[in-house]
Amino acid sequence: MVAFLQTNELLIVLALALLIFGGAKLPKLARSLGQAQNEFKQGLADSSEDDESKTTS
Which letter does DSSP use for residue 20 in this model? Predict the structure, then answer.
């Protein structure tokens, strides 16, 4: 997703995030985004397992 961003654009986005959220909230924000991504991946895996069990039964 961020493959199209070059170094300059990425630095600008990070600086804006630092200004908007502040230094103390960025680790919390990153942690919550990581947890949400893991839950999403787990949900997809569970869904594909359910689909496989339905087709084999």
Answer: H
Interatomic CA distance for residues 46 and 14, integer angstroms: 34
41 domain-assigned? yes
Q: Report residue 3 as tokens.
A: 């493959």
Question: Please, what is the end-to-end C-alpha distance for the chain in angstroms?
Answer: 37
| Domain boundaries, position 43 | 23-57
Rounded to the nearest 10°, the torsion over CA 31, 3, 46, 34 is 0
Give me the pLDDT at residue 42, please. 94
Number of structural domains (the chain) is: 1
Tokens of 32: 């919550």
- Would the pTM of this model clear 0.70, i.e. be above it? no
Residue 46, in any domain of the structure = yes
